[in-house]
Amino acid sequence: MASEKELSDFLKSVEKRAFKRALYAVRDDEAALDIVQDAMIRLAEKYGDRPPAELPLVFQRILSNATMDWFRRQKVRNALVRNFSDFESLGDDGDFDILETLEAQGGSTASESASDSVSRAQILLAIEAAVEQLPARQREAFLLRYWEELDVAETAASMGCSEGSVKTHCSRAVHALAKALKAKGIQL
């Protein structure tokens, strides 16, 4: 069982690396801080009684789940919700017309062309579809290794299989993804 000092020392030792990992994933300082803080709180509240040797793997899993949760929340927010308070009045008179505001923002804030945006979205959808088509174990190994950045040993422990199996699953997943995407005309 980890003592309070061991847990505190562990959290201090991983905070910068965890922040960089979250920042790399979400590309937002404040969101990355929130994700790391939530992961640390979850570890302390729910898994603080674990042996110190188990803390790194458990924390990485919690951090990965917290990051995925953030992406899910963002996807829902961006797809379904837009607060009226996010918009500002275009005129000095304080009159607010949502259609005028959306039209003005649509023309001025786009940093990429519509065709580039559509192309990028289509490629991402194709990649997501290809990943979804992978067999369950290949998909799990691929996501743990390359999305959650666990090493082979951690992935094997997480999946309950040998390191050789992890390497085999990952290799097959990469080849299957490359083949599926090449068939759709996507070269990575």
Brief overview:
This protein is mostly helical. The protein has helices at 4-26, 29-47, 55-80, 98-108, 114-133, 136-147, 152-159, 163-183.
Write the layout of secondary structure elements.
Blueprint: H1 4-26, H2 29-47, H3 55-80, H4 98-108, H5 114-133, H6 136-147, H7 152-159, H8 163-183
Structural account:
This protein has 188 residues and is an all-alpha fold. It has two domains: 80 residues, Orthogonal Bundle (Rna Polymerase Sigma Factor, Chain: A); 76 residues, Orthogonal Bundle (Arc Repressor Mutant, subunit A). It is 74% helix and 0% strand. It has eight helices and no strands. Helix 1 runs parallel beside helix 3 and helix 2 crosses helix 3. The longest helix is centred in the middle third of the chain and has 26 residues.
